[in-house]
Design brief:
128 residues; alpha+beta; 60s Ribosomal Protein L30, Chain: A; two-stranded antiparallel ribbon; 2 helices
């Protein structure tokens, strides 16, 4: 089975020894995305709604690199440092899906890289 790393110039570069995503076995596995601006590779927004939007835009850039859309996502995991933000995140996250919502888990964690309040990873059906 082939494993093909994906690297979009329109999404933040990995901050560790991992790929933005890996295309393998009919799926695209998108690594956890932080709300980093792809141009600066830094978190520039502090509001949880804006952080969620930036992450979803980063995921969208990786999907686009593979000719996929949010409708191809089948599973996500959302990591929050405060579950009190659940409703705000749900509203922003949900606005990116048009046909159906993927399966999802949401968990509260004590800390995330770069002081982020949120991280999201995703699995999408791949056309390759």
């Amino acid at each position: 089975m082939n494993k093909n790393p994906v690297n979009s110039k329109n999404a933040p570069q990995a901050i560790g020894p991992y790929s933005q995503a890996v295309n393998s076995g009919g799926f695209l596995f998108i690594s956890g995305q932080l709300p980093m601006n792809p141009k600066s590779n830094e978190i520039e927004v502090l509001d949880i709604k804006e952080q969620t939007r930036q992450i979803m835009e980063n995921i969208g850039a990786i999907l686009k690199e593979c000719d996929l859309t949010f409708n191809d996502i089948v599973k996500t995991t959302i990591y929050l440092t405060d579950l009190g933000n659940f409703t705000i995140v749900n509203q922003e996250y949900g606005s990116f899906f048009k046909e159906y919502f993927p399966a999802r888990a949401t968990v509260e964690v004590s800390k995330l890289p770069k002081g982020s309040a949120i991280e999201i990873d995703a699995i999408a059906l791949s056309k390759k």
